[in-house]
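Materials and Methods. Structural model of NAD(P)/FAD-dependent oxidoreductase. The 467-residue sequence of NAD(P)/FAD-dependent oxidoreductase from Cellulomonas fengjieae was retrieved and submitted for structure prediction as follows.
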Amino acid sequence: MTDYDLIVIGAGPVGENVADYATKRGVRAAIVEAELVGGECSYWACMPSKALLRSGHAIRAARRLAGAREAVGGALDASAVLARRSSFTDQWRDDGQVAWLESAGIDLIRGRGRLTGPGQVTVDGRTYSARAVALATGSVPVLPDIPGLAAAAPWGTREATAADHVPERLTIIGGGVAGTELAYAFTSLGSRVTVLSRAGLLDREEPFVGEHVAAALAVEGVDVRLGAVPVRVDRDPHGTVRVVLADGTEVLADELLVSTGRRPSTGDLGLDVVGIDPGAVLKVDETMLVAGTDWLYAAGDVNGRALLTHQGKYQARAAGEVIAARLHGHPVADQPWGAHAATADEVAVPRVVFSDPEVAAVGFTEAQARGRGLTVRAVEYDLGQVAGAKLHADGYSGRAKLVVDEDRGVVVGATFVGQDVAELLHAATIAIVGEVPVHRLWHAVPAYPTISEVWLRLLEAYGRPTA
Ligand SMILES: Cc1cc2nc3c(=O)[nH]c(=O)nc-3n(C[C@H](O)[C@H](O)[C@H](O)COP(=O)(O)OP(=O)(O)OC[C@H]3O[C@@H](n4cnc5c(N)ncnc54)[C@H](O)[C@@H]3O)c2cc1C
Ligand SMILES: NC(=O)c1ccc[n+]([C@@H]2O[C@H](COP(=O)([O-])OP(=O)(O)OC[C@H]3O[C@@H](n4cnc5c(N)ncnc54)[C@H](O)[C@@H]3O)[C@@H](O)[C@H]2O)c1
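The predicted structure was written out as tokens:
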């Protein structure tokens, strides 16, 4: 007899879903959490960052419309925005999520979990046994090795999303997703923001994405410095932080935010005890089973496949279900697109950057598709020319792109940049996952006058089938 069928380590969105989906299939599950039930996403990432962004987006949207513009004079009420943000984190209390765990029939074990043998998890000196263990420990920020940086006590994304004040001047190192979103959040709240990006902004997306976002940030008064390489940081006794760049220039600010990526949280998990190299990226199969084991799973940020809440929860649904199937001796559907396989991780990961303009992309960029050896043709369209977009905002600016696999005649990538494009994305995700032939997409008629009409314009750019 074991204490549980399943122990999940980490009660972020992913761990909660692994436990929930397994429990619904009759598995006795416990979840171990070292901090707050709900994880990074609920308290220091997705929720607070989106709450910080929303009010600024709403004001700018109103200012783009004649008639509405006249009604929204003045600056944002920063303290009201911070208070609204705090309400979305339940004031950093997890009572609500703990109550949900109870209602779902999942036991909560508070403390830091560590593997101490196959199917064994030790928390604060007490060891629990289980037939399966799932790691959902998330990720931790990476601090670059810049002389003086650590001593200057910079903000990470935790400190920025939980901020109780708005610094007069904010420097951000890192032009990725977090840096870009938080630049918008803090410029809207009244900070003078400088973004230091060693390459272009959001440079894993189509090249026009970073160009649009950088131009829009500049309009908001953000000093975006591309190709900027920080070589030294210090903070003086008055609190002013100085970042020295490789070209000898200096940037002064009252606060410094470092958002230079994250790595899987696998340290001190006891992986070595069960024969797994703790320094290597965890290898998992399509059911999230860790290579070389028949009892250990890893889902969400910790497996490094896609550091996004929705994609981790997708993996969690597959993992929770497959753990139950295997424990009950039921058949496993791990073939591509089977119920127990996270196939979309490979070809259809949706990504939204909540900047202004928003960025929404799914599948491969053109460069990624070509890099994988696909024969593709890409088409682009100026979103500002779509009637629905013109109505949506005066002077609407944006761009859209489809990447089509010419051998299969299906869409393999889509990117939109423009105000309020996030909600366009799911249509593209369905087209990719459903492998809808491009000739059939001509029969999916976008309503007039919506921004979705860009789909028709993209198809026209691609060419109408003759048969
Ligand atoms: C600023 C920011 C904004 C973001 N915004 C978005 C967004 O808008 N949309 C989106 O999809 N993604 C967003 N992300 C990414 C998202 O936060 C992560 O992908 C998501 O939180 C991953 O969920 P997870 O459950 O794998 O890990 P986490 O949410 O990190 O949860 C892991 C949990 O495990 C616990 N834990 C770790 N080790 C142990 C241990 N040994 N024992 C017990 N407990 C342990 C931790 O305390 C934590 O509660 C954002 C990230 C950042 C940094
Ligand atoms: N809306 C969302 O879905 C959302 C929002 C925020 C964060 N996230 C997730 O959280 C994770 C972390 O976000 P992030 O922005 O920190 O990571 P990221 O990987 O998106 O960007 C990191 C940036 O830092 C730069 N960088 C890395 N090392 C550097 C160094 N030594 N000096 C200067 N620049 C350096 C990189 O070039 C890159 O531009 C991401 O994987 C992202 O998916 C998602």
